[in-house]
Amino acid sequence: MRVCLGVAVAVAVVGVVIAVGCAAVPQPALKATEGRGRAGGRAERSSATLLQARAAPTPPKDHGRDQGPLVPITFQGVEPDSPEGVALDFLAKLRDGDVLGAATRFDDVMWSSLMNDGLLGLWPSLVGEGGAFRGIARLAHEGAGWSDVVHVVCRFDRGEIDVRIDVTKAGRIHGLSFAQPEPAPYEAPAYVNAAAVQEKELTVGEVALPALLTTARQGAAMPAVLLVHGSGPLDRDERMGSVRPFRDLALGLASRGVAVLRYDKRTLHLASKLSAEALDAMTLEQESIADARAAVAILRTEPRIDAQRIFLLGHSLGTAAVLRLAASEPQVAGLVLLAPPARPLEDVIADQVRYLARLSGPADESGQQLLGKLAVEVERVKTLTAGEQVAAADLPLGIPAAYWLDLAAHPVLPLAAQEHRPVLLLQGGRDYQVTGADFALWQQALGRSGAELRFYPELDHAFVSGRGLSSPADYNEPGHVDGRVVQDVAQFILASRGQ
Questions:
Q1: CA 98 to centroid of chain Cα atoms
Q2: Which CATH code is given to the segment(s) 194-494?
């Protein structure tokens, strides 16, 4: 599969990414971290999608996992200032964790579209899917009018990946795409009883999103939970590199008697069909909430499901979608919020970018300029008004104004504080994407509401256990949702008597 990184933007924390461009590419749907990164900048906007980007390049320091020796990214006979030299230098900086240095290779269109947060997701996406990097297999170069196209064929444990980098005559990177290998086979964690569960294929919504209903083989009138992803074109497993949180949750909960419905997101299923105009006008309602509402209706018709005990579970920005959906679905029995952002999205983005930049070491002058540009864009979001004409390039990560205005109109803390139904909120202590600052705000907002709030010091944003400083590179390593999380969610749902 060739994955286009057309004009793309990425928000690693809650995973908002908007990608545009590369008309020749039928499926622009890389999950950077899956997230994981996309990039690129073409003048013609022909196809678009929302993308999640959560991973980052393997840092040169130990941030929780042993990274092993670094293989040089070089090729004999390449001049540093040639298109091939520019491409190799860009990839080397990504691999070494010098994200701000890599970003200085972009032209203005690429920078305004991607920012360094999505860039952090690119190299680990390759490593997470292809295995350990083993070197450059070959280079190819072709002229393409005002730019040169360099094919850098990278050799990984599970095969070769052709990275295509478009370099302008001025030596700036203007486009990026690559062919991605198939993911490693899934191995169920120990808390899954595979013999006790079964899965049924369904479709969700008017566009027939592919879905799976996972249930226990025995029993009836069982409670059910709908899984709602964060933003980005995520599949039903919410796959992020080598991690599949929603698959772990579905199989683990079904093993304990809780039915689970999950589905491919609209922005994945319709990746090649979304127009630039549709993306510019898209809000969380169109991206997530409408399809989640249709999925709830499907659960109510399933004969083995107790319609009075249907729960909503949101992860990351999906928690905002869940809170908004619940307000219009009084029959929903309760809510589970995994790593919910409490602060405005633009503030979360700014903090995350600064954190990831620090992992790369002190920023040089160009890096400081890029961080300063983001700070200006964050402040611009806070002054947006309805009907105001503001270019997406002047807003954080190139996300259009409609998306920002919609989020601002639906703050999550008041929505949650008004909830009378059972609420379970879980937060990982190693999560640099949604952090302890958010958890503290939730404690203040929900401390007297009867909601259950639980904190797991050693878990990251995907609720996988680790050690040391967390980084997106953690998603490269196979891991599973911690068994305590599965058990806590199951007990919360099973203890409810429904509406």
A1: 21
A2: 3.40.50.1820
Angle (nearest 5°) at CA 166 between 162 and 169? 145
pLDDT given at position 45: 25
- The CATH 3.40.50.1820 portion of the chain extends over 194-494
Q: Encoding tokens for residue 46?
A: 């022909």
Annotated catalytic residues are 316, 431, 461
Give the pairing type, strands 209-216 and 259-263. Answer: antiparallel
For residue 90, give the DSSP letter. Answer: H
* C-alpha–C-alpha distance, residues 320 and 419, integer Å: 13
By the 10 Å C-beta count (0-12 exposed, 13-18 middle, 19+ buried), 344 is classed as middle
**What's the rounded Cα separation, in Å, for the pair 311 and 403?**
26
Pairing of strands 173-179, 159-168: antiparallel
Sequence-ordered list of residues with C-beta below 8 angstroms from that of 20, at least 6 positions apart, any chain? 6, 7, 8, 42, 45, 46, 47, 48, 113, 276, 279
Measured CA to CA in angstroms, residue 475 lies from 121, 130, 160 at distances of 10, 13, 20
* 122-148 core/surface letters (b: 16 or more CB in 10 A; e: else): bbbbbbbbbbebeebeebeeeeeeebb
Cα distances (angstroms) measured from residue 49 to each of 45, 120, 132, 281, 422? 11, 19, 29, 12, 34
Backbone angles phi, psi at 236, to 5 degrees: -65, -20
pLDDT tens figures, 466-492: 998 888 778 778 899 999 999 999 999
- Residue whose token pair is 């980084």: 471
Whether this prediction's pTM lies above 0.70 is answered by yes
Q: Cβ–Cβ contacts within 10 Å for residue 373, how many?
A: 15
Strands of 209-216's sheet in order across: 197-204, 209-216, 259-263, 222-228, 305-315, 334-338, 423-428, 452-456
CA–CA distance, 123 with 70 (Å, rounded to integer): 13
Instruction: Identify the sign of the CA torsion 226, 230, 234, 239.
Output: negative
> Between helices 290-301 and 318-327, what is the axis angle to 10°?
60
Helix (H, G, I), strand (E, B) or coil at 261: strand
pLDDT for residue 413: 97
Inter-axis angle of helices 122-130 and 83-96, nearest 10: 80
> pLDDT under 50 in the chain at which residues?
1-68, 115-117
